[in-house]
Structures are given as structure tokens and as C-alpha cells.
Amino acid sequence: MRSVIDIVDLSVEEINGLLKTASDIIKNPKKYSKKCKGKKIATLFFEPSTRTRLSFESAMLELGGSVIGFSSASSSSASKGESVSDTAKVISKYADIIAMRHPKEGAPLVAALNGDIPVINAGDGGHCHPTQTLADLLTIKREKGGFDNLTVGFCGDLKYGRTVHSIIGALSRYNNVKIVLISPNELKIPSYVKEDVLDKFNMDYIETDSLEDSLPSLDVLYMTRVQEERFTDRNEYERLKDSYVLNKEKLNKAKEDTIVLHPLPRVNEISIDVDDDKRACYFKQVENGKIMRMALILMLLDIAKKDKSKFTLNDNKIVYNKFKCSNPVCISQTEQELKGMAKPVDNGNYRCVYCDKDF
Ligand SMILES: [Zn+2]
């Protein structure tokens, strides 16, 4: 059985397969309307994220299946102190697949390792959100025809923005993708993303703080929110806050066929006068997210039908119980009975398997 915790759990062939299923769903929605008849998805949302939960639920309903679940920790047994692994074992008796959102990094992995049904990570703290990345990929594919030879700009908070790290990782598997990283100095992309992805896959990339100078070269512009609380220097925030707002006037510097993406919700980083421009694709991303979730649910249920064996990590490099992760938002910190799991990385450090933090 398979689960999807991180986008890297999917091979490039599997991602291409999901994109193919998605185009078929778009062409023939009727063909899919009963594919999951009799199947249930459990949406286990330990923190509220109405948008993502409704996307998973609509995806299952459009496949003819049904939905059970909860929308916040206070309406689940977590408020009584039930562990993630017990929750997963119990829910495995009711449902066929789980979509889990949890504030602790690594919680969906714990569910996948302990339950008997496939788990999709619907966002675990600041760690991974693979179905957002799938939505982004389908949007780029539909609007630009593919991924090879594109120049993709990321603008805003590149330090904390997990969606950005994840999509850069996914794009690293295609040919000749050029990355333009546009951010204030304080919110530059972390060095581990450079080492583990950009340098490792020899990606062509530049770093700049100017959105306006970068715009003419971009095929795709991916905007994210710059949050005031991320700045240590208030003057720096005041100086920069408007330079990362995309408006109609700035968009005029972009090519006619540039597309603008944003994982939503936006605050003010894209002004509403951009919404009716044909290059604005962020609401299309929402629809594409639902379609990719449909494709992923189908893929995982299909695998589970043929292979009922329990999900395992199957990695002989993992060492157990040797290290204790110190990341305060790691699930292994909250649920003390979990065994420590770490993997050696290139520079001699070890990396927590739950949350990917190095120590
Ligand atoms: Zn950890």
C-alpha cells in the first residue's frame, strides 16, 4: 500500500500519470462519477483549513464516494489526548483512505505507518503539502503545455513558504527549468533548498530583490505572502512591503503569456485589479487542486486494492532510537512513545524522518 506524505514520494512517472488522469477527468467527468462508489474518505483536520478540506471532500464526492471526518482538533478525540497512531488505527476500520491535516510536522507519516489504509498529507505544519504542489503543476501544465524550458519566478517569502520549496523540488525533475528567486534579503530561500535541490540538480537560478526587473523574463510568476511578523526590522518591512505587491501596472511589464499563480489565501500581495487579466491563474489553481486530488485518490485506492500490505518506509539507512529530534513542532516531540527515526545526510549530519530537520 502507498501513502503520499511528501511530493518526493511520487516518481516523475507517477506525477505524469496523475497529470494524464487529470486531463482525462477534465475531458470526461462522467466517466469518473462512480469510480469510488462505496468508498469513503476520512478528512482528519486537526487544525482548521476549510479550503483544503472542502477540496478533498468535493474530490471524493465527484468520484461518487462519500466523506466522514472532523474539521478541528477540538471536535476530535485529540482533545481527549488520543494519539495520532491510535486515531489512524480506529479510522482504518471506518474509511478507505485518509486525508490528514495536522499542526505537527510528521503526523501524517505516523498515521500512514500505523493505520491500515492509504494516507494523504493535507499539510503538516510548515513541512509538506504535496497536493498543493500537484495543483500548481496541473495549472502550469494546462496553461503552458509542459514544464521543460520554462523560466519560473517565485516572489515574496521564500524562507518560510513551504509551497515554494516543494514546487521547486518538483520542477527540478524536468529539463532546463530556470528559477528566479525574488525576495527581500531577510526572506531569501534557505541554504538547504539550494544545496538539496537547486545545486544538486544543477538548476539554473538567480536571486534578486526586484520583482519589476524580473517580470519581463518570466513564463510563470508564483506569488506568496510576505508576512509583517517575519521581519525583525520594522523599517525594512516598511521599505519593502509595496515592492512585492503585484498590480496591473507592474504586470504590464510581463510577457503576454506569463501566468500568475498564488497558493491562496492572498492578503494584499496581488491587487484585485489583476484578477480580470487573462494571465491571472490563481482561481484556476483551486479547481486544478480538486482534480489532482481526484487523480491521487484514484491512484492510491487502486494500489491499495492490489497491495494490502502495510505502508512501510523500506529504507535501510534509517537508524532507530539513536537521536531525539529537537524541533518543537515535530510530532516525535509531542508523542513521546514514538521511536526516534533519523537518516544520515551528505554533510555527515542526521535528518529526522518525521520533520526533515537536521541535527
Ligand atoms: Zn523531527
What would you say about this model in short?
The protein is of the alpha/beta class. It has 12 helices and 12 strands. β5 (151-155), α6 (162-171) and β6 form a beta-alpha-beta unit.
Topology of helices and strands:
Layout: H1 12-27, E1 40-45, H2 50-62, E2 66-70, H3 84-91, E3 97-102, H4 107-114, E4 119-124, H5 130-144, E5 151-155, H6 162-171, E6 178-182, H7 191-199, E7 204-208, H8 211-214, E8 220-223, H9 234-240, H10 248-251, E9 259-261, H11 282-306, E10 319-320, H12 331-334, E11 341-344, E12 350-352
Parallel strand pairs: 1-2, 1-3, 3-4, 5-6, 5-8, 6-7, 8-9
Antiparallel strand pairs: 10-11, 11-12
Helix pairs in contact: 1-11, 2-11, 3-4, 5-6, 5-11
The structure holds zinc ion.
Structural class by SSE content: alpha/beta
**How many beta-strand runs?**
12
Distance between the termini: 30 Å
Number of helices: 12
Mean pLDDT: 93
Q: Level of helix content? A: 25-40%
Task: Kindly report the spatial arrangement of strands forming the biggest sheet.
Answer: 7-6-5-8-9
At the fold tier of CATH, the topology name of the largest domain is Rossmann fold
Low-confidence stretches: none
Strand content: 15-25%
The H/E string reads HEHEHEHEHEHEHEHEHHEHEHEE
